[in-house]
Structure formats: structure tokens, C-alpha cells
């Protein structure tokens, strides 16, 4: 049923995209020829412009398909989908411009092409936002569901159920669980254990399912070959969730050694020279712009600190940065001057008596962090990255938290994925590290831009910033 629905939905999606392409082109023609140009002399006839729609519509649909824009919404994120829309349209624009140049149509309006692709990007994006909103509505009501059988209940299986239960808009329904270690009457989050792995073949014959998820624990991998063979025999689409997610990164970096797959335990995109140079360029330009933009605020903050509390304006503290190297991080002083032992006492807590009146406001609004723009300019920090920690806490956490030291494979940041997700100040260190590791392993320039926007809207002011 899901497959039939998906085919119908894809046909409808293609039809809507075709109408959007035609509508965007005709609107661009009207604006360019009738509104902007406003005269007939030297302008190609309308019929010639409309003839372009014959190759344009199927061409854009093929590009949309090539860039995975008809992939089910369950498995494609919003950011990736927007990126694919931009890629498809930019590629289409290049082909369009090249075609007009090759046929030597000098009178064909190039500005019309730019207007068309601008409209097409906007309308295709709006269309997909509306579709996602509609799918979420109907899936939350129990319609358009994909029925899943879960084989194995290791840590990966529980993690899978937790995610789909917390996101009903994805449209997944777990029919039942097969496991050799659970009690026959056991349940997990309301999902019933319906048998053992040996019952798999019979259950697949009796029930019509859309997908099988294999989530065996590592100790049960000797069963994997047989279970996969049974699943393949049934013809039902099968996925494997490996039970080594705490070892292998979310996006494993694989190499092909003459047909032998090799998985790198850790892949850090910023270890790539081009990526590192691009990020550093953004840091230099961004920090210079921010220093100029926020200079009035920084001058006012410095004056208030000096007038309201005795001591230096700038607070300097040693932190651990890239490749475990220590550096001195700058902040506006928001606390009373303390001894070296007092500084090492621990994190600031709510209603901490050491924080000054002006300091409370600066910490709440993150104004005290602005001097770190000079750390960014010096290359000790980045605008975006894991927050740096003091040496004594690094030594403590490296023993207590698995993979903690991985965060030092990139430059620390003024803000990061953990901070925009609320893990700031006196919050869970483990969850903060999970966010840092996700950022390190999944870095893209687009993710940095997303974090910057989220910082502006909800990162500067935080209830956990004491």
C-alpha cells in the first residue's frame, strides 16, 4: 500500500513541479518583457519564448530527479532538500544559458532566465514546505504510515524506537519486535514482543509489511547472514542498524580497497585542507565584521565593567584548544576579582554571589563573550565550534566521558551546535559532547550558517547562562 501511495504521490509531485516550472517561466516572461522592457522593438515574439517550455519542463523534471527531489520525505531533511533544489536550478540555469549562447539567440533576454530561476527556486521550496506540513498532519493522525518489523532489541533497536516514537510526523509504525533475549510478554514503549528471530519467516508470510529493521546486538551478529537471507527471500525492503554507533561515526568514511570495504573509525571533514581554509577565511572575515559592528557595544560594556567593579576590564583564562594546545581566552570580566584557586572552584551557578550586577546582564546576553572575536582573529578559536574547557576539567572529563578528547580535533568556537540546542552552562556534559561530536563529524559550511542563525535567534540569550 505504501509503495502504491508513494508512486501516486511521486506522479502528483512531478505534475506540480511541471506546473511550477511553466508558471515561473511565464511570470518571468511577463515581468521582463511586459513590465521591465515595456516595448516590442528588438524583442522576440511571445511564441518563440513559449516554445522554450517544450524542452524546459522535462529538462527541469529530469534535473529534479537527478538531484533526489522525489526521494520520500521520510529520509530527506529540509536542509538537504533545499540544497538539492538550489543545485538542480543552478545546474539548469547553466545549461539554459549555454543553450541560448550555442544557438546564437542574442535577442533572448538573459535577465528573464535569472528571474525565472529565482521564481522557480522560491516556488519549489514553498511547495515542499507545504507538502511536509501536510504529511506531518496526516501522519500524526495515523494515516500514510509505513509498517515496520524490528528484528533485535539491542541498544541500536531501542534508539531506533525512541526516535520514531518521538517523531510521529515521520510516519513509521512498528508492528512488533522479534528478539531472542526479551521475555515473550515484554514491551518497549508500548510495542509488543511478538516472537523470536526463528519466527521471522512465518511472520513475513502472514503479514504485509513495508520494511524490516535489523538491530541485533553485537553478540548476535552470527545470526545476521541467516536473517538477511530470510528477509531477502521475502522481498520486503530491509535495513540494518549497526550496534556500534558509539564507535563508528554517524556518516562513516569508507574506502574501497580493491573491493574490500574499509571504514574509518573517525572522519573529520575539517581535516580536509580546502574545508579548513574555507572555514578559516570565513572566521577572519566574520570576526573583522563583527568587531566593527559590535564595537559600540564592546566599548560601552568595557566602560560599565570599569565603573561598577574594581579590577581589569578583560578577564583572561587558560582553555584547551585545537590539538590539545592551551591558549588564553578573553572575556569581559563579569565577576569580582578572585584568586587563582577561586577561579578553579567550578562553574558559575544560579545566583552566584561572585557575579557582579553588570556581569549578570552581560552573561545572560552573551555580551561578555564578545572579546573572543580577537581569539578568532588570532586563529585560536573559530566563530563556530565546540566550546573550549579549562585544563582541569579536560583532565577530568577525558577519563569519565568516552570520546571527549575528539572535540579537540577542531578549533573551539564562540558558539556551537550544543549551545543552540540548549546545552550551555550547568547542563549535561555528556549531551553537550554528543552535540559536539555530531558537529565535528557532520561539518558543512551550511551547518555553520545554520548555527549562526540559530545563535542570533535563540543562542545569545539563554536561561542556563549564569
From TrEMBL:
Subcellular location(s) per record:
Membrane
In terms of one coarse class, where is the protein primarily found?
A: membrane
Could you tell me which Gene3D superfamilies the record lists for this protein?
NAD(P)-binding Rossmann-like Domain (3.40.50.720)
The chain positions of domain Bacterial sugar transferase read 279-458
Supply the Pfam families for this chain. Bac_transf, CoA_binding_3
Work out whether the entry's keyword set contains Lipid biosynthesis.
Answer: no
Q: Which organism is it from?
A: Muricoprocola aceti
Enzyme class, broadest EC rank: transferase
What residues form the membrane-spanning segments?
A: 12-36, 48-70, 82-100, 112-131, 284-305
What is the protein name for this chain? Undecaprenyl-phosphate glucose phosphotransferase
Which EC number applies?
2.7.8.31
The record describes its membrane topology as:
Multi-pass membrane protein
Tell whether Transmembrane is among the UniProt keywords. Answer: yes
- Tell me which UniProt keywords the record has, alphabetically: Membrane, Transferase, Transmembrane, Transmembrane helix
Into which family does the record put it? Belongs to the bacterial sugar transferase family.
Amino acid at each position: 500500500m505504501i509503495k502504491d501511495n508513494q508512486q501516486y504521490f511521486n506522479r502528483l509531485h512531478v505534475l506540480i513541479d511541471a506546473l511550477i516550472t511553466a508558471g515561473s517561466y511565464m511570470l518571468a516572461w511577463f515581468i521582463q518583457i511586459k513590465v521591465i522592457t515595456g516595448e516590442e522593438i528588438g524583442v522576440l515574439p511571445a511564441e518563440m519564448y513559449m516554445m522554450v517550455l517544450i524542452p524546459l519542463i522535462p529538462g527541469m523534471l529530469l534535473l529534479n530527479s537527478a538531484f533526489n527531489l522525489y526521494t520520500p520525505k521520510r529520509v530527506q531533511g529540509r536542509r538537504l532538500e533545499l540544497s538539492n533544489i538550489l543545485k538542480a536550478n543552478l545546474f539548469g540555469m547553466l545549461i539554459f544559458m549555454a543553450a541560448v549562447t550555442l544557438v546564437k539567440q542574442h535577442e533572448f533576454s538573459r535577465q528573464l532566465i535569472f528571474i525565472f530561476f529565482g521564481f522557480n527556486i522560491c516556488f519549489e521550496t514553498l511547495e515542499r514546505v507545504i507538502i511536509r506540513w501536510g504529511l506531518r498532519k496526516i501522519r500524526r493522525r495515523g494515516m500514510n504510515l509505513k509498517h515496520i518489523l524490528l528484528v533485535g532489541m539491542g541498544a541500536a533497536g531501542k534508539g531506533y524506537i525512541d526516535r520514531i516514537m518521538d517523531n510521529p510526523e515521520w510516519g513509521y509504525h512498528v508492528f512488533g519486535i522479534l528478539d531472542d533475549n526479551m521475555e515473550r510478554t515484554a514491551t518497549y514503549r508500548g510495542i509488543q514482543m511478538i516472537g523470536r528471530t526463528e519466527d521471522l519467516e512465518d511472520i513475513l508470510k502472514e503479514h504485509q509489511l513495508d520494511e524490516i529493521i535489523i538491530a541485533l546486538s553485537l553478540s548476535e551478529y552470527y545470526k545476521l547472514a541467516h536473517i538477511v537471507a530470510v528477509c531477502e527471500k521475502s522481498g520486503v525492503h530491509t535495513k540494518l542498524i549497526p550496534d556500534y554507533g558509539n564507535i563508528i561515526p554517524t556518516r562513516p568514511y569508507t574506502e574501497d580497497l580493491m573491493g574490500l570495504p574499509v571504514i574509518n573509525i573517525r572522519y573529520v571533514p575539517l581535516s580536509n585542507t580546502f574545508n579548513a581554509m574555507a572555514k578559516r577565511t570565513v572566521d577572519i572575515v566574520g570576526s573583522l565584521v563583527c568587531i566593527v559592528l559590535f564595537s559600540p557595544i564592546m566599548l560601552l560594556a568595557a566602560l560599565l565593567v570599569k565603573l561598577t567593579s574594581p579590577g581589569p576590564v578583560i578577564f583572561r583564562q587558560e582553555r584547551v584548544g585545537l590539538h590539545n594546545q592551551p591558549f588564553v581566552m578573553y572575556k569581559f570580566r563579569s565577576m569580582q576579582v578572585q584568586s587563582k584557586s577561586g577561579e578553579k572552584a567550578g562553574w558559575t551557578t544560579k545566583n552566584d554571589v561572585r557575579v557582579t550586577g553588570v556581569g549578570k546582564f552581560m552573561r545572560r546576553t552573551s555580551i561578555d563573550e564578545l572579546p573572543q572575536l580577537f581569539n578568532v582573529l588570532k586563529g585560536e578559536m573559530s566563530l563556530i565550534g565546540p566550546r573550549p574547557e579549562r585544563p582541569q576539567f579536560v583532565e577530568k572529563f577525558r577519563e569519565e566521558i568516552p570520546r571527549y578528547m575528539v572535540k579537540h580535533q577542531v578549533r573551539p568556537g564562540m558558539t556551537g551546535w550544543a549551545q543552540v540546542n540548549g546545552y550551555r552552562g550547568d547542563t549535561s556534559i555528556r549531551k553537550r559532547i554528543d552535540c559536539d561530536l555530531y558537529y565535528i563529524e557532520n561539518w558543512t559550511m551550511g551547518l555553520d550558517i545554520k548555527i549562526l542563525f540559530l545563535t542570533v535567534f535563540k543562542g545569545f540569550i539563554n536561561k542556563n547562562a549564569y
